[in-house]
Structures are given as C-alpha cells and as structure tokens.
Amino acid sequence: MEDIGNLMQGFAVALSWKNLLFMLVGILLGVLIGVLPGLGGANGVAILLPLTFTMPPTSAIIMLSCIYWGALFGGAITSILFNIPGEPWSVATTFDGYPMAQQGRAGEAMTAAFTSSFVGAFVAVLVITFLAPLVARFALKFGPPEYFSVQFLTFCSFIGMSREPPAKTIAAMMLGFALAAVGLDTVTGQLRMTFGHTELLQGFDFLIAVIGLFGLGEILLTMEEGLAFKGTKGKIDAKIVWETWKKLPRYWATSLRSCLIGCWMGITPGGATPASFMSYGMARRMSKQKDTFGKGNIEGVVAPETAAHAAGTSALLPMLTLGIPGSPTAAVLLGGLLIWGLQPGPLLFVEKKEFVWGLIASMYLGNIAGLIIVLTTVPWWAAILRIPFSIIAPVIVVICAVGAYTVHNNMFDVYMMVVFGIAGYFFKKLRYPLAPLVLALVLGDMAETSFRQSMLLSGGSVAIFWSNGLVGTIMTLAVVLLLWPLVSLVIDAMKRRGGGGGPGTAPSTA
Amino acid sequence: MAPETHDGAAEGGTETRWVELVVALLICAGGVLVMFDSARVGATWGSDGPQAGYFPMLTGTCLLAAGVWIAVATLYRWRKLAGVTFVTGEQMKPVMAMLLPTIAYIVAIRFIGIYLASAIFIGAFMVWKGRYRMPATLSVSLGVPAAMFLLFEIWFLVPLPKGPLERMLGY
Fold first, then answer.
1. Which of A237, A361, B20, B103 would give a disulfide with A14, using CB separation of 3.0 to 4.6 Å?
2. Which of A51, A174, A455 is closest, CB to CB, to B49?
C-alpha cells in the first residue's frame, strides 16, 4: 500500500527536531488559546498565521494544526473547572463536566475529557489517512460544476442543519459572500463595492473578520456577564488518571458512536460545535440513566469531547482534498494554505506529497503529545485563569490588534477589526450564526469562480449542474438540505394534527 | 451566553425586538447596496460570459430577501416579543467600559505607536478596574509591550506601528 509508505515518509518529515519543537510550541500555544476566552481556535490560528510566513510551509502548518489540537484540548479545561466554555465546542462539556468538578471529581472529568478527545482525534486521523488519498483521486474527476456543487452543498448543509433560524443563517452567509466580493474582481479587472475607497481595493481579509467577530466580539459579550472566574480547584494526579482510564472502556459504545458523529460532521461541513451537541443529545437519549445527565455523568463528558475532536480533526479531510473547510478553523488553515501558494485538492497529494503526509503524520504525533502535555499541565492553566480579568482583557485586545495589523501591515485592518468586533457582539446576541459568515468569506471567491466557469461551460444554463450523475446527486442532496427546515416544519405540523385525534384515541407519544 | 430577561423597559434596557428590527433593516440596506453596485458593474451576460456583478447580484438579492424575511418575522411577533430585553443598562456599562477604551486605544496607535499605546491601555485597566498599585501595574503594562517588542521587532522581524517615542530611540 503506497499510502502507508507515504505515511512513513511523512513521519520522517514530522520527526525532525525542528518540527517537533514547532509541534510542542504549537500545542502549548493552542492550549493557552483554548483556555483563554476571546482567543478561540479560529481566532488564535488567524492571529498567529502571519507569523508563520517566514517559516517553511510544512513546519508552519504543523505548528498551526498543533495549535488547533491544543485549542481543542484546552477548551475542556475551562469548561470543567470554571463552567466557562473556552471554545464553542466545549459548551456541551460544561453540562456534566462542571457538576463533576463541583462534586470534587474534576480530575476524573478532565482525564475523561482529554482521553475522549484523543480517541476521537485518533480515529479521525485514521480516517483521513485512508480516505484522503481516495477522495483526492476521486476529486480528479471534478470539474467546475462539481466543485461548485460541493461548495453549494456545504452552504446548504449549514442552512439546513443550523440551530439558528434559516433566514439568519442565509443572511450571515450572504453577508460573507458580499464581503468576499468587495475589491478587485480578478476576472474582469473591475472594482466592486469599493465606492471610491482605495483602502478597500484588496477587499476584506477573512483573518480580520475572524479576529474581530470571534475575538473582540467574544470579549465584549463576556464583559456583559461581569467577570469573575470563580473556579473549582483542579487537581489531577497519576492515580486519578489511572482510575479514570480503568472506567472509560465501559463507555466504548458511546465513544464509537460519537466518533462516527464527529467524523461525519467534520467531513460534511458541520464542524466540531454541532458535533458535540448532537453527540451529547444522542448519548442522553440512548442512555438508561437519562436523569443523571447534567448532574455529573461521566458519559456526558465522553460523548461531546470525542465528537468535537473527531469533527475538528476530520474537518481537515475535505479541506486538503477538495479545498472545502469543514469548520471555521479549518477555513483559516485553508486560507493559510492558499497564502503559501499551496492549492488544496488532488494535485496537492501528487505534487506536494511531503507536505501532506508530513502534516498527517504530525496529526498522530501532535495528538499523542497533546494528551501527555495537557494531562501534566492542568494546574498551570487553572492558575492562569486566576489572573484577574482587568489584566487579561486588555492583553487579549492588544493581541487581537497586533494580530489584525500583522496580516497586511495595515492600520485600516485594525479599524475594521473593531467594526467586526461590534458586529460580532450584535450577531451573537441576536443568534446570527458566525460560522457561515466566515465560511462564505473564505470560500466566496472560490465558489464564485467555480460558478462562473460552470456558467461559461454551459453558456448560461443552470442545467449543467444536473448534467451528470455525480454533480446531479450532490446538487439534489444540497437542495434537500436547504429545504430541510421547511420539510421538518411540515412533518411537525402533520404529527401534531395526527396526534389531535378523535375521542377515545390514545394521546400520541413523542 | 446572557439569558433573555423579560423585565423589559422597567430595567432601563433596550428591547430585543427593536434591535432585531434595526439589524434586519440594516441587512436589507446592505442587500440593496450590493444590488446597486452590481447593477452598476453589470449583472447580466456580457460578450464573453457573466459580468462582474452577476454573482454579487444574486448575493445581494438573497441578502435583501433574508433581511426582509427577518424584519417581517420580527414584526409578526412584535407583541409577543414585548418586554424581552436585549441588554440592560447595567450590562451595557461594562461592555462600554471595554469598547470605548478599546476604540481610544486603536485610534491612539496611529499617533503614538502600538507599544506606548498598549502600555497605557493595559496600565489604565489595571489601575482603574483592577485597582493595582503602581509597581504591579508598571511591571505588567511595561512588561507586555517590551515582550512584544522583543518578539516582533527583533525575533520575527515583523514591524509594528511605531510613534514618536520609538523614532526618538532610533527605530
């Protein structure tokens, strides 16, 4: 199997001292980012991306993806100890993690969380190792209509599967597209929506939007609740770890199910956050002790963490093979690839084997290293959060400002970051989902290019999107997902009417 | 994750339904703006394919449609939403206490450079909100920009905006 050979070569690349160092730095930074509110996975990677411009792309992406793993691990620490999710995907972990901590079982909760994360990520990396080359080869059959259909599917699945009202998801997404279109149109050379402002020539960089929306916006939102990190003590030692590890295999079914949910949600872009909620919900529904969920059932920690990590990791599969990021952080990583001149897709696997397999190898190593590091450094992270907010908040703002500036060495970007921050505050409060906005901002130009090329091929007819089996299937699936909210409304209405019944009928059970 | 409160105007806050409506109308305005500019650039089939405004016109139309939908939905539930607070006066204070100094900080960067501005920004927060004494305040508010300087100017060789102070020191 030539792929195993490639993987071995990848390990050789990843195991150089330099790359191992970057891995370590990446994981530590990542956990720090995951632990601090206001610096999220997507945000943190976005801020550190410009710093990697001087590094060779392989080392850079190894470090950035390790930051990503670190953030995935780190979000659980604050969720369990402080009931503050460090990341959106750690929210579900607070449901049972914090009660466990309150009962004095913080160490157990954290061990369970980290181990589950590791398992989820590991399974996902295995999936990537074996599926990625297959998908990449498959992707060679893709022409512009096929690419557009996959991108369209991505957007429709967001609209269909989103927990927020579809109109708001559509609005957020369209806003992202509109922002992506601002600036110079590369095909016709015309300026779009700049309204005479030369600063807008380059358009809006997704990094600025991410830092503003997810970073500054999050801080403003946190300020509302007044800031007091009242945390429970986080003690973790080898004995607790061992005891918990002995308990965990009991939950193998939950773990497996969560891995599947996570991989699915990562590959068909949904992301780690929906994966964690879905997995928690399913675990509770299928458990025989439903009532203990929310009160400190360890399964309530295992399920979301496994799924979130599996999703976060497998989100890299479509990113590498098709150029479709499965999560906002993968979107930022994709942006990074493009900046380094690496075109994701089948050619990446052929022309830049060392890069791809080095990255995949580092995923294995990064997760193992991450687990070890995070188990041993928990007390430090807990201590950091005791630093009062009056110090942390301005420091985070400074970091965001620096991050925004270093993208294009441009103060205008920093101003825009503030605007995005205010917008992010309002959007989050009004339940406008931010992930579609970022996704549209990153993919907007690509989607538009595929659309235009398809239109050129077909001479303006939309029928090209149903011209062959592959593209037709994807488009149909996309339309189904798009209309799903309507469909489920109709189903609910029919169920209610059916349950009303006549006299003497038994009440319907949900 | 601020919970929605139904205490309404009695607490001196802003009602959610108004904010929803305004944001929805802003979205509509955005959609119109995009459509307007797309029409200017040309949104139909040109001599050699779709014009530059083709795709954005679709985007703008959807944006407008979504905005209208949200606005209408908000108006439809107008009475039900009465009394749901978006943000109370009490909650607004700390948010403004963060936002306004941030804006001042960003504006200041242009004039006095990022290092000095950061030092003042952090220091001000520590003194006013954290009530720290001078030694602690100075060590952090000077320490962070110093670390930044070492990290960016010297190690990564990434220049950050500088002001008159740095110019005097020869950078």
1. A361
2. A455
Q: Are residues B135 and B152 in the same domain?
A: yes
Pair B14, B33 in one domain: yes
B16-66 per-position pLDDT tens digit: 888 888 888 999 998 898 888 888 877 777 666 677 778 888 888 889 998
What is the rounded CA–CA span in Å between residue A101 and residue A240?
13
Contact at CB, B102 and A418, closer than 8 angstroms: yes
Number of domains in chain B: 2
Phi, psi values for residue A487, rounded to 5°: -60, -45
Does residue B148 share a domain with residue B82? no
The contacts of residue A416 (CB under 8 Å, 6+ apart) are A204, A208, A212, A404
B51 and chain A: CB distance < 8 Å anywhere?
yes
Distance from CA of A505 to the nearest CA of B (A): 33
List all residues 6 or more positions away from A121 whose beta carbon is below 8 Å from its beta carbon: A69, A72, A309, A310, A312, A313, A363, A367
Closest Cβ opposite residue B98 in set A168, A175, A220: A220
**Residues A11-63 pLDDT 10s:** 777 778 888 888 888 888 888 877 776 666 677 788 778 777 778 878 888 88
Q: ipTM value, please give it.
A: 0.83
pLDDT tens column, A418-433: 999 999 888 888 888 8
Short-list A69, A97, A392, A175, CA closest to B33: A175
Find the residue in B nearest to A224 (Cα). B91
Q: What distance in Å separates residue A435's CA from the closest CA in chain B?
A: 17
Domain region containing B23:
8-86
* Partners of residue A227 in chain B, C-beta under 8 Å: 94
pTM above 0.80, yes or no: no
**Distance between CA atoms of residues A399 and A48, nearest Å:** 10
Q: Are residues B54 and B94 in the same domain?
A: no
Domain finish residue from B46, B62, B86: B86
Q: Let me know whether B20 and B50 are in one domain.
A: yes
**Assigned domain for B1 exists:** no
Q: Are residues B102 and B164 in the same domain?
A: yes
Question: Domain residues of chain A, as ranges?
Answer: 2-492
Question: Given a cut of 60, is residue A228 above it in pLDDT?
Answer: no
* Residue B82 falls inside a structural domain: yes
